[in-house]
Amino acid sequence: xxxxxxxxxxxxxxxxxxxxxxxxxxxxxxxxxxxxxxxxxxxxxxxxxxxxxxxxxxxxxxxxxxxxxxxxxxxxxxxxxxxxxxxxxxxxxxxxxxxxxxxxxxxxxxxxxxxxxxxxxxxxxxxxxxxxxxxxxxxxxxxxxxxxxxxxxxxxxxxxxxxxxxxxxxxxxxxxxxxxxxxxxxxxxxxxxxxxxxxxxxxxxxxxxxxxxxxxxxxxxxxxxxxxxxxxxxxxxxxxxxxxxxxxxxxxxxxxx
Length: 257
Ligand code: CIR
Hints:
Number of helices: 7
Strand content: 15-25%
Strand order of the largest sheet: 2-1-15
Order of helices and strands: EHEEEHHEEEHEEEHEEEHEHE
Bound molecules: citrulline
Number of domains: 1
CATH superfamily: L-arginine/glycine Amidinotransferase, Chain A
Shape: globular
Number of strands: 15
Distance between the termini: 8 Å
């Protein structure tokens, strides 16, 4: 069960967020993004989470994507080392929020030359799958593994060959079910799960998010919504279009614990 989340309001500079345009063309509209973010926070609250919604930080265009500079779990928090210059400083700005919930001896740090972003980290029960991507390197993974093993977790690396982060291409919906791309469907690491391949025109909907049994699904992806509903999950649909334009998905916008 999640009881808390940390989010950060989008800043006006989000129009300059990094993008490969893999999920949408054009620049985000700030006002629309702010309204969508409000709705996101309200949705988390409606599902029982107490949300710490941090103030916007204009110095970092991508700073609303708080999932990347930290990884949180019940026993500890790990401050990551974001790989891009424009995002690396976000790791310093998330620490005060993390310290509200974790003692100093529960907070760990990924150090250079290790890089890591939380979008590459997917937890299944007590096992972490960690994407090896342009953002998370082998050294980052090895440091992460050594930290989480102290708390009884295991971790394995998974190659990310299709784009930004692991969780853009595979998501665990709980109860043994995963949404995957055709490539992740062939990944031996995921062979033991019930895998549902998402159509190429609905790739963005892979990053749906299970919060305490209810799955939040991005608006506009009816086939994936039906797949999730047919599996028996209650769903909530929200529009995330402005974040999609800068490669941001649903999980990116919060730390949940
Ligand atoms: C970036 O490229 O870093 C941002 N524009 C998007 C980050 C999305 N984060 C995530 O998937 N966890």
